[in-house]
Design goal:
The protein contains twelve helices and 19 strands. It is of the alpha/beta class. Helix 3 crosses helix 5, helix 5 crosses helix 6 and helix 8 runs parallel beside helix 10. The protein binds magnesium ion.
């Protein structure tokens, strides 16, 4: 379909059924306002028009950082949508998605299904069939059974061809439950596309707890790293950033901190971003003798840039000597400092290989590491 897509996010309500002092769309969810999640969900799908209460405009400006248009809402939800639609009149918009600001968990797949259905229908909206039995009741007593056949739970975004929904809203001055109702009154055919259980509308305090669980459980990344460095002549080794006196040194292009290399690779692995060699090529002379904290600091920055946080890391050093135990706490503290986290999330332990193999013969030191990242 030619023309562009606009997304109207309706967030002008003052609803505080969710508890707290702020309207629900401004409350925090997994570290940022609900609306920030909602806006992020639509990134790349089209031009965003955010409809806010007139009192929230300054807060909105900070949130959108130039990436969307702000429109003041009206007395009712219906009026708010009309204001946004009128702001698009005369533009090259050919289809519009209208979405509740309080549904921050909408997925790209669901948005794609609604848009795809608009090729065939003037309107399309996600819904889920009702699967629970439905009763009528009064005073905590069941008074009847309601057939559930053909009943759906409506969600958003509700999508429409733009001129059709603009005309429908102009003709509809009464209040409406949603935009599908407005479209139906105007005689538009609205297709039902498959909704998602996780596309919840945050209404009550429990909904926030559920959304938080979904967000934090949704994207957990695990990475492992393994590294070996051979011994050479020298008087100390560097492990987890600590200089430890020893009768040998570790051979390597950088400071040969085998443990920190394993941990850095575990983080790159969790992000599916290759390994240290990809980010800091050994062929590049500027990394000769470099402190490996440079590598781990870079990996830590990539965690943040990719929208994750480090949940925990575990490092195991394999060697007969030097003894690691006396230094383990200081090693944990140094890694935690570089990774901007607390020591209870960083483990450093050691094992020997029972004098077997290259580590047993004291030809070198091996290290393995695991890191868990969680979407922030
Ligand atoms: Mg290495």
């Amino acid at each position: 379909m030619p023309g562009q897509t606009a997304i109207i996010i309706v967030a002008a309500g003052r609803g505080t059924r969710a508890g707290g002092d702020l309207p629900k769309q401004w409350q925090g969810l997994a570290g940022k306002p609900v609306l920030a999640h909602t806006l992020a969900a639509f990134a790349g799908f089209g031009r965003v028009v955010l409809v806010l209460h007139p009192d929230d405009m300054l807060r909105g400006l900070a949130l959108i950082a130039g990436g969307a248009t702000l429109i003041a809402g009206g007395e009712t939800r219906n009026k708010s949508v009309q204001n946004a639609l009128e702001s698009l009149a005369g533009s090259c918009i050919s289809r519009v998605l209208i979405h509740d600001g309080a549904r921050p968990l909408v997925s790209p797949a669901l948005i794609g299904r609604v848009l795809a259905a608009l090729d065939q229908h003037p309107g399309a909206a996600p819904a889920l069939p009702v699967t629970d039995a439905l009763w009528t009741g009064r005073d905590a007593r069941v008074t009847g059974i309601q057939p559930r056949d053909g009943l759906y739970r409506a969600q958003t975004p509700q999508g429409f061809r733009f001129p059709a929904i603009l005309d429908a809203h102009r003709a509809h001055q009464a209040e409406a439950a949603d935009d599908v109702e407005v479209a139906r009154v105007a005689g538009l055919d609205v297709a039902i596309v498959e909704g998602e259980e996780e596309n919840i509308k945050l209404t009550y305090p429990d909904d926030f707890a559920r959304a938080e669980r979904i967000l934090t459980h949704m994207d957990v990344r695990l990475g492992n790293g393994y590294d070996v460095h051979a011994f050479t002549e020298g008087d100390h080794v560097t492990l987890c950033g600590l200089r430890i006196a020893h009768d040998k040194a570790l051979l390597g292009h950088s400071d040969a901190d085998v443990a920190m290399h394993a941990l850095t690779d575990a983080i790159y692995g969790a992000l599916a971003e290759g390994d240290i060699g990809r980010h800091f090529p050994p062929s590049d002379p500027q990394w000769k003798g470099a402190a490996s904290a440079i590598f781990l600091t870079h990996a830590a920055r990539r965690i943040t840039e990719r929208g994750f946080r480090l949940s925990n890391a575990d490092v195991t050093i394999v060697c007969e000597r030097p003894k690691i135990g006396p230094h383990a706490a200081a090693m944990q503290a140094e890694l935690a400092r570089i990774l901007s986290t607390t020591v209870d999330r960083i483990s450093v332990k050691a094992t020997t290989s029972e004098r077997l193999g290259f580590t047993g013969r004291e030809e070198g030191i091996a290290a393995i590491a695991t890191a868990t990242l969680v979407k922030a």
